[in-house]
Design a protein that fits this description.
The complex is a heterodimer. By secondary structure, chain A is mainly beta. Chain A is 0% helix and 51% strand. The radius of gyration of chain A is 13 Å and the shape is globular. The N and C termini of chain A lie far apart (36 Å). By secondary structure, chain B is mostly beta strands. The chains are: A mainly beta, B mainly beta. At the A-B interface, strand 5, strand 9 and strand 10 of A face strand 5 of B.
Chain lengths: 113, 113
């Protein structure tokens, strides 16, 4: 089935140790998004790619970076994770057109020790 | 500013009907989405409204009034599996090639026997 896949589902890292989260999609969507969601809060958009065009949200910390080597894959790099970065990280995709519904992956829950 | 309001929690009985309200104030408007999110999982798409009126999809219906900045999600014949958080999200006129979603904090629905 066409879907959005995120690996790993759970990630434990140490304070200050770089970590990479991955997202892949078989929907052939041209837009990919990364959200951060903390407990009982709304998903917060970090950035998105429209094809290879990177769009960063104004309030996304420099500690968060992203790469999209091809249409199918997108990575979230956290250069120096802090305790406050512990959260669920959601990848979503959409295709420009009527509705432009965003479809989410299962998320990666990041724990920072 | 951007503001989306929805009740924090609601409780309903199995087999009953529940209405979850959402009001929004955004700088632009290009559609409203409802997502369902079970604890620890990714949001899943439920409905989309861009014109005023009611959209029905099985046990779920969503209503939009753009002039009032108001939407509701109606769930009929409630089942225990409907216990989840329901997120209201507005697609803003981002001004770029894509439109971003602004999420509310979600309404946690508990369905009781």
């Amino acid at each position: 089935d066409a879907m959005v896949i995120q690996n790993p589902r759970y990630q434990v890292t140490q304070f200050g140790k770089p970590v990479t989260l991955s997202c892949s999609q078989t929907l052939n969507h041209n837009v990919m998004y990364w959200y951060q969601q903390k407990s009982s809060q709304a998903p917060k958009l970090l950035f998105h790619y429209y094809d290879k065009d990177f769009n960063n949200e104004a309030d996304t910390p420099d500690n968060f970076q992203s790469r999209r080597p091809n249409t199918s894959f997108c990575f979230l790099d956290i250069r120096s994770p802090g305790l406050g970065d512990a959260a669920m990280y959601l990848c979503a995709t959409s295709s420009l057109g009527a509705g432009e519904t965003q479809y989410f992956g299962p998320g990666t829950r990041l724990l920072v020790l | 500013g951007q503001n989306i309001d929805q009740p924090t929690e609601m409780t309903a009985t199995e087999g009953a009907i529940v209405q979850i309200n959402c009001t929004y104030q955004t700088s632009g408007f290009n559609g409203l989405f409802w997502y369902q999110q079970h604890a620890g999982e990714a949001p899943t798409f439920l409905s989309y409204n861009v014109l005023d009126g009611l959209e029905e999809k099985g046990r779920f219906s969503s209503f939009l009034s753009r002039s009032k900045g108001y939407s509701y999600l109606l769930l009929k014949e409630l089942q225990m599996k409907d216990s989840a958080s329901y997120l209201c999200a507005v697609r803003d006129n981002y001004g770029g090639a894509t439109n971003k979603l602004i999420f509310g904090t979600g309404t946690l629905l508990a369905v009781q026997p």
